[in-house]
């Protein structure tokens, strides 16, 4: 019996010791603000966008990939479409205009073959997203938008993100002769023919990437290179853009 009592007491001592709370140093719990949490979610979506929509389709220029990975596309999308900001299709931005599909933005940018310090003109500022991508590649970005509220909104967004882009409200068909000639021009709306003022505003060796075709139908994306007196056109495939507005 004495051994049984001793055994019971021993078990009770062990159980009591296990039940005692142990003192540990209080470790700070990492916290993040709702904005930081949202930024992390968008950053993850942007990483997937580049991997699955852009790199997987053959975009190889490391500077273009880096720009697409960095620019926060969700900042250029209306609030109603935030959850679709990194989706594989264009989105409406108001006034009958769209922010282009991410892959198309990357494709057109890659064909521009921009080098640091080159001067580039964008026709159709829209949301400002394409201009931000260009601003990651060169510090001389000019953009023309015919719809004043879009131009003002894009200018505000770009400035808030620290991008130095010169924006003009006007008819993009006629380019921006005051700052010509340009090393590269990208057109993000579709005329039914190549605007000759844009060809004239290209430097020798300059590149123009532009969709051509009738409104409401698929168009053809062209790379047009100016080499001396020659203008060389390369068909880059079918696309679909909003029509170029203006009187021309």
Helical amount? 25-40%
Main sheet: strands, sense, barrel: 7 strands, mixed
Our estimate of the beta-strand percent is: 15-25%
Would you tell me which CATH topology of one domain applies?
Rossmann fold
Using the CA coordinates, give the radius of gyration.
28 Å
Give the name of the CATH superfamily of one domain: Vaccinia Virus protein VP39
End-to-end C-alpha gap: 111 Å
Number of strands: 9
The CATH top-level class label of one domain: Alpha Beta
Concise summary:
The protein has 248 residues and is α/β, with parallel strands linked by helices. The protein is built from seven helices and nine strands. The longest helix is centred in the first third of the chain and has 21 residues, at 34-54.
Please provide a written account of the structure.
With 248 residues, this protein is α/β, with parallel strands linked by helices. The chain has a domain at 90-239: Rossmann fold (3-Layer(aba) Sandwich), CATH 3.40.50.150. 34% of the residues lie in helices and 24% in strands. The chain contains 7 helices and 9 strands. The chain has helices at residues 2-19, 34-54, 62-70, 102-112, 129-135, 148-160, 196-200; strands spanning 91-94, 97-99, 119-123, 140-145, 165-169, 182-187, 202-212, 219-227, 230-239. It has a 7-stranded mixed beta sheet with strand order 5-4-3-6-7-8-9. Strands 1-2 form a two-stranded antiparallel ribbon. α2 runs antiparallel to α3 (62-70). The model is unreliable at 1-29 (pLDDT under 50).
